[in-house]
Amino acid sequence: NRVGGEERFLELFEETLDLADFAGVFFDRIRFPSPANGLKEILTCVCDDCLERSGGVIESLRGDLQRLLKEPGKAVGVEAMPGILRELFASIEEAIIFRTTSVSALLADYARAARKRNLDIGIDLFPPSLARLVGQDYTELSRHVDWIKPMIYCKTMGPAGLPMELLSLAKILRELNGNISERDSLWVLEQLTGLDLPESFGELASKGLTLDNYDRELEKLESLDRGGAVRIYPGFEAVAFPPVCSVDPAIVGEYVRRTLNRGYRGFTLSWDIRQIPPANLEAVGDFLAGW
Predict the structure, then answer these.
(1) Is 199 exposed, middle or buried (0-12, 13-18, 19+ CB in 10 A)?
(2) Residues in Cβ contact with 243 at an 8 Å cutoff, skipping those fewer than 6 apart
(3) pLDDT number for residue 85
(4) Model confidence, pTM
(5) Any idea of the CA torsion for 123, 124, 128, 129, to the nearest 10 degrees?
(6) Tally: H helices and E strands in the chain
(7) Which H or E element spans position 191?
(8) What are the tens digits of pLDDT across the range 146-194?
(9) Dist. CA 176–CA 70, nearest whole Å
(10) Are the CB atoms for 153 and 236 separated by under 8 Å?
(11) Angle (CA) 19 22 26, round 5°
(12) What distance, in Å, lies between the first and last C-alpha atoms of the chain?
């Protein structure tokens, strides 16, 4: 939403598209900060440009945020926290919609430039459980792209990885309410996301999530209104990139099996082919050869 400079960025984008005979364009990081950025940034931005463009919505968010940050810290039982958080987030729905609309409008400008050149358009999105937290609405964004890569990283301790983002959220909950245990904070997130989380922060950081959670994210995705023409190529880890992520051929093969069993026509091995071990690529090839 920042005023000034955006036209030049768009011009540079179009100049880049004209440098070669590209087949398509892939957008990444068109979003607001994620839980991994910490409590102070997760529900920003409240800059002057956002304040002006929101027509007062972001201004009122400031007061709501104070309440949002204080309410879970009151002396309430852990069983009450999921309901309190749902109610509080419902109260800032206008601000959440402003954020998703801002992201969608930005994408639309760049997508129009790509459409004029008949380019195929793809986008990286957070998993459905977390997408709206970063201003990404699958339904809105589907209108501007040809295909989506949902980042469903169950074993990644890095931005967009479910383990890191959920661990960051759990730590935020404990910041707000020091009376709850690690397991209690993870239980609250289970109620809010529908995911199955480990018993402790250490286990979440070291082992990540089970791949049953990959299926749960795909189920949520399939329930969303995305428009009939948008293709989905689920993204999952295939890299050896310690300490952020290291998966073996068995895990990669299981990701592939679950993806194809749900009827998807393709998938995305993430995230850097230079960091994908040959054994993991061979596991994919062997699985597809026998499919």
Answers:
(1) exposed
(2) 157
(3) 85
(4) 0.90
(5) -150
(6) 13, 8
(7) helix 182-193
(8) 999 999 999 999 999 999 999 999 998 888 877 889 999 999 999 999 9
(9) 7
(10) yes
(11) 110
(12) 47
Q: So what's the pLDDT on residue 191?
A: 96
From the CA atom positions of the chain, what is the Rg in Å? 20
Residue with tokens 């800059």: 47
What are the boundaries of each domain within the chain?
6-232
Token pair of 247 as six digits: 């998966």
Alpha carbon distance 242, 210 (integer Å): 19
**Which regions of the chain are under pLDDT 50?**
none
Residue type, 139: T
Distance CA 116, CA 79 (A): 53
Q: What are phi and psi of 229, to 5 degrees?
A: -90, -10
Helix (H) / strand (E) containing 270 = strand 268-270
**Strands 268-270 and 235-237, how do they pair?**
parallel
Residue matched to tokens 């993430």? 270
| Cβ-contact 142, 227 below 8 angstroms | yes
